[in-house]
């Protein structure tokens, strides 16, 4: 079936089965491979994208549930104010290790900062708890989010 989805400000026409997960459409149909496949069961956060600004596990979001929603992926998160601050802090703090989980981590962190400019430790833990890092970069992730938040007035 044909769907028109809005990704990073552009409309893409895709022809896939109704229950195809958004993650598959992004990676395999549109070639946007910054969003990662980890578990496929909403357990790891590697596939996190924003749907209308909300961090969402794209591995369990069927394409027929998207409608006119605005999807944003890691490829364009730097174009948002919160995303740019998060990416700078990630670089300054040298957060990634293997890197596999990091696009999902950045998407969750950017969504947090966009809605909560001055998150507490508890806010950070709550927002990031669904994003697993096998390399254990959690301490640097928290530091980077705090650094990004410090630049908010
Ligand atoms: S791949 Fe979607 S949460 Fe793990
Ligand atoms: S940096 Fe390796 S899994 Fe997170």
Task: Describe the structure in your own words.
The protein has helices spanning 22-29, 81-92, 102-115, 121-128, 138-150; strands at 2-7, 10-15, 48-51, 54-57, 70-72. A five-stranded mixed β-sheet has the order 2-1-5-3-4, with helices on both faces. The termini are far apart. It has 153 residues and is an alpha+beta fold. The longest helix is centred in the last third of the chain and has 14 residues, at 102-115. The chain binds FE2/S2 (inorganic) cluster (2 copies). One FE2/S2 (inorganic) cluster binds at residues 96-102, 133-135, 137.
Q: Please provide the count of β strands.
A: 5
Principal-axes geometry comes out as globular
Strand percentage lies at 15-25%
Rg estimate, integer Å: 15 Å
- SSE order: EEHEEEHHHH
Which small compounds were modeled alongside the protein? FE2/S2 (inorganic) cluster
Strand order of the largest sheet: 2-1-5-3-4
- Main pleated-sheet profile: 5 strands, mixed
SSE class: alpha+beta
Query: What percent of residues adopt helix (DSSP H or I)?
Result: 25-40%
């Amino acid at each position: 079936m044909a769907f028109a989805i809005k990704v990073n400000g552009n409309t893409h026409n895709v022809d896939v089965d109704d229950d195809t997960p958004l993650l598959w459409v992004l990676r395999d149909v549109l070639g946007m491979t910054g969003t990662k496949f980890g578990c496929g069961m909403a357990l790891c956060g590697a596939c996190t994208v924003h749907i209308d600004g909300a961090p969402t596990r794209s591995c369990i979001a069927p394409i027929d549930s998207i409608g006119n929603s605005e999807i944003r992926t890691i490829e364009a998160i730097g174009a948002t104010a919160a995303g740019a601050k998060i990416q700078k802090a990630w670089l300054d703090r040298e957060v990634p290790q293997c890197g596999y989980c990091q696009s999902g981590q950045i998407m969750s962190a950017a969504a947090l900062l966009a809605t909560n400019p001055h998150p507490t430790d508890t806010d950070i833990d709550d927002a990031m708890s669904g994003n697993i890092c096998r390399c254990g970069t959690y301490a640097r992730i928290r530091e980077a989010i705090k650094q990004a938040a410090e630049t908010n007035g």
